[in-house]
Specification:
By secondary structure, the protein is α/β, with parallel strands linked by helices. 31% of the residues lie in helices and 21% in strands. The chain has helices spanning 16-31, 49-63, 69-78, 89-99, 116-125, 144-155, 173-184, 214-239, 248-259, 389-398, 408-418; strands at residues 7-11, 39-43, 79-83, 105-109, 133-137, 163-166, 197-205, 269-274, 292-297, 309-314, 321-328, 346-352, 355-364, 372-381, 428-431. The strands form 2 sheets. Strands 14-13-12-11-7-10-9-8-15 form a 9-stranded mixed sheet, covered by helices on one side. Strands 3-2-1-4-5-6 form a 6-stranded parallel sheet, sandwiched between helices. Helix 6 runs antiparallel to helix 11 (408-418).
Length: 463
């Protein structure tokens, strides 16, 4: 029996993440009757509890759809605040007093990774780590070596089963729906292998730029920002073998899938930078940081040998959308006298902004000739009152459920895959905002293959 958390402590409580994501999630948890433990904010801001409460209300007004008076009063009754320097033992003694005997607190580190060791040591010396869980935000390092160092640091103060690494993408309803659809439908499994699948494409596109976050993006870039984490999570969900059940078996199979992904080499990657990026505040005039990355992945398993996984991520692209397209092989013979049988059968998962599962098939055109056209059979769900990722993941962590958190081995495998192509291992090509990235990305595709650009619903799939 896993112990339920009895207090939530979040370090960096006055920061941007808490303001945009955590407070709205707490209000939603109260709305759903799922939050009754004390919530203790810790920061070095010189604030008192009333100022902290004012920050919470402002957050809900701006990012939580407005502060509901009844829910806000409930939240206020749970809030506590500890102000102090993370380097001072007195801060953690004050935290221990605020915990008031809580036996299973969870400590959320919404702070830079450079402070993890300091906070971990402070929690250990004050014995606030006993029976506790720790939740840490991505990025889990900047490279394979730094990820290993970070994991080693965390393990000094917490056992692996008490470390919850948040990649909010795993908390998204559509991503969990993708995993469910794979293993809850027997019709897919016979086709889900190299015998029938020609290729897999994953596109994560944003139609916005860096939005004033040039300094951050100079440190991250598209590969570190989304390809190493969000995209690798999707690859693992698509490529993994059926788990024995919920819980740790799911994490076992996700990690195993990533161990089989071949380490990327420069010839497998094309980087791009949208024209005008270097004019952004905080960006170097000669920056070679990528705002677009395309990659060709190979998975050395019996199931996926020889099947390319084509990846694209980028900013200032035509749409904001995340979509997965599994293209199946064409029939071995043209039974009917058609010049072309058009697009092959495919399965399309749209992960955002809407949730779509669609199957592409060929059907006969009306008329005398045995000619066909491509159509999609679409199953679409419009979520109502869908749980936000942070709410879902906080609740999972409170209950000790780690299915959709990244494990140490999975994090290190994801870094191992991208490590050789970080930095300037490949040239960066300019592309025009509003296009699908540099033309050089086409060079990654096999002959006759094109990028499957996400499109508005209702457009002819042959287009």
């Amino acid at each position: 029996m896993v112990d339920q958390a009895d207090a939530l402590v979040f370090f960096g409580a006055t920061g941007d993440l808490a303001y945009k994501k955590i407070f709205p999630s707490l209000q939603s948890m109260i709305r759903h009757g799922r939050l009754n433990m004390p919530v203790i904010g810790v920061a070095r801001q010189g604030w008192n509890l009333d100022q902290f409460k004012a920050r919470a209300k402002a957050s809900l007004d701006e990012h939580g759809g407005g502060a509901d008076p009844a829910l806000l009063n409930k939240l206020f009754s749970l809030l506590k605040y500890v102000d102090g320097d993370y380097r001072n033992a007195e801060t953690f003694q004050s935290l221990r007093q605020a915990l008031n005997g809580a036996k299973h607190p969870m400590h959320y580190l919404a702070i830079p990774p450079s402070m993890f060791a300091t906070v971990g040591e402070g929690l250990a010396k004050s014995q606030c780590n006993i029976g506790a869980r720790i939740i840490v935000e991505k990025p889990f390092g900047r490279s394979l070596d730094s990820a290993r160092t970070l994991n080693s640091t965390l393990s000094k103060y917490f056992p692996e089963e008490a470390i919850f690494r948040i990649d909010h993408y795993l908390g998204k309803e559509p991503v969990q729906s993708l995993l469910y659809s794979r293993f809850a439908n027997a019709v897919l499994e016979p086709l889900w292998n190299r015998n029938y699948v020609a290729s897999v494409q994953i596109t994560m596109a944003e139609n916005i730029g860096v939005q004033g976050r040039g300094s951050f993006y100079e440190e991250a870039g598209a590969i570190r920002d989304v390809l190493q984490n969000h995209i690798m999570q999707l690859v693992a969900c698509l490529a993994m073998e059926p788990p024995a059940g919920e819980g740790e078996p799911i994490r076992d199979e996700r990690a195993k899938a990533l161990t089989l992904v071949r380490t990327l080499s420069p010839e497998d990657v094309v980087r791009g930078q949208f024209a005008g990026y270097r004019d952004e505040k905080g960006v170097a005039g000669d920056s070679t940081v990528e705002t677009f990355a395309a990659a060709r992945l190979w998975i050395d398993s019996w199931r996926w040998a020889g099947v390319p996984f084509y990846i694209r991520v980028g900013k200032c692209l035509p749409v904001s959308c995340t979509e997965i397209v599994v293209d199946f092989k064409k029939p071995p013979q043209h039974v009917f006298r058609e010049a072309s049988i058009g697009r092959s059968n495919h399965l399309r998962f749209r992960v955002s902004p809407e949730v779509i599962l669609a199957m592409g098939v060929r059907v006969k055109k009306i008329g005398e000739a045995l000619e066909g056209t491509s159509v999609e059979l679409i199953a679409q769900r419009h979520p109502h009152d869908e749980m936000e990722p942070y709410e879902r993941l906080l609740l999972d962590a409170a209950g000790g459920k780690a299915d959709f958190f990244a494990r140490e081995d999975q994090v290190e495998e994801a870094w191992r895959i991208v490590d050789p192509i970080l930095g300037n291992a490949t040239p960066v090509h300019s592309y025009t905002p509003g296009t699908w990235g540099p033309a050089e990305a086409q060079s990654l595709l096999a002959d006759g293959v094109i990028w499957r650009d996400p499109r508005d619903e209702g457009v002819n799939p042959d287009a």
